[in-house]
Amino acid sequence: IGDLGTEGGGSGSSGTKTETAVRGDARAEAPEVDGELSQAEISGVMKRNLKALRDCYESALKRDRTLSGKVVIRFEILEDGRTANIEFEDSSLKSADVISCIKGRAKYWRFPKPEGGSVFVAYPIVFTPAG
């Protein structure tokens, strides 16, 4: 290479990357219930699962800080307390990632066993950025 040498090549530093904490809020509204479980029984289970739904939202919020909206989760509670037929309607939250994440988690929700057959639920949740 002759006269080119390697003097004054600059620094090998590439800067620092910091991750900003992103927080979102998931607020449940009153569910519509058709069957033998009370709103209180359903809301009790949903409150235990709200953090997982907020995690789904916050993951997408890192990519789009303006993401917000309402999702209505419709599902059936079978006689054994498991969920089935999980669908979404009235979604003003424009994120397929959040919907997919919620659907994946909803398969594992367990409710009290309803008397008298399946219960059908429409559960609205409003997602908004916090801070």
Using the CA coordinates, give the radius of gyration.
23 Å
Mean pLDDT: 87
Q: Could you spell the SSE succession in H and E letters? A: EEHEEHE
Terminus-to-terminus distance: 56 Å
How many runs of DSSP E, i.e. beta strands?
Answer: 5
Describe what you observe in this structure.
This protein is an alpha+beta fold and about 130 residues long. It has helices spanning about 40-60, 95-105, and strands at about 25-30, 30-35, 70-75, 85-90, 120-130. Strands 1, 2, 3, 4 and 5 form a five-stranded antiparallel beta sheet that branches. A hairpin with a 5-residue loop joins strand 3 (about 70-75) and strand 4 (about 85-90). The N and C termini lie far apart (about 55 Å). The mean pLDDT is about 85.
Using brief descriptors, characterize the structure shown.
131 residues; alpha+beta; 5-stranded antiparallel sheet; elongated
Short précis:
The protein is α+β, with helices and mostly antiparallel strands and 131 residues long. Helix content is 26%, strand content 27%.
Give the arrangement of secondary structure elements.
Layout: E1 24-28, E2 32-34, H1 39-61, E3 69-77, E4 83-89, H2 96-106, E5 119-129
Antiparallel strand pairs: 1-5, 2-5, 3-4, 3-5
Helix pairs in contact: 1-2
